[in-house]
Design a protein that fits this description.
HIT_Hint, HIT family, subunit A, 149 residues, 4 helices, six-stranded antiparallel beta sheet, alpha+beta
Length: 149
């Protein structure tokens, strides 16, 4: 573990808005607590990083691997029409990549999801279902965090 990983702390806004699902080799996998959309976030466990180019070359490559792996598996799992993958950071400066599964029938289609509807919290059962779906596809790549009871 290097110093940047030891000093890593999840931004308070992400901690408030998300459910921790697991850990890839580089990134923490979060689920935005908004049942309107399957919306996931990757956060590299590196302190003080706000842009992809701030990562080392090896971490940049690993981030792309994890992001592509996640996007492909989410698209398959949820039968996505389109995967929206974005790193904005205007409100939360910590580097994080949104992975939003989009459908032609989702409430914001074809526009952006931000601010379209108030967030609808997931039930524990819905989070459990998402964990089960992802575990069947991503075991071996992602260390899942047990769901709190």
């Amino acid at each position: 573990m290097d110093e940047l990983e030891l000093e890593f702390e999840l931004h308070p806004q992400l901690a408030q808005d998300c459910i921790l699902l697991g850990e890839f080799p580089l990134c923490r996998l979060l689920l935005i607590n908004d049942a309107n959309y399957p919306w996931f976030v990757l956060v590299p466990r590196r302190a003080g990083v706000s842009e992809i180019y701030h990562l080392s070359s090896d971490d940049q490559v690993q981030l792309m691997r994890e992001s592509c792996f996640l996007a492909e598996n989410l698209a398959d799992t949820f039968a996505a029409r389109k995967m929206n993958v974005a790193s904005l950071g205007n409100m939360v400066p910590q580097l994080h990549l949104h992975h939003i599964v989009r459908f032609e029938k989702d409430p914001a289609w074809p526009g952006p999801v931000w601010g379209k509807l108030p967030a609808r919290s997931y039930t524990d059962e819905q989070v459990g279902d998402i964990r089960t779906k992802l575990q069947s596809l991503m075991s071996g790549e992602l260390s899942f965090v047990p769901q709190p009871v």
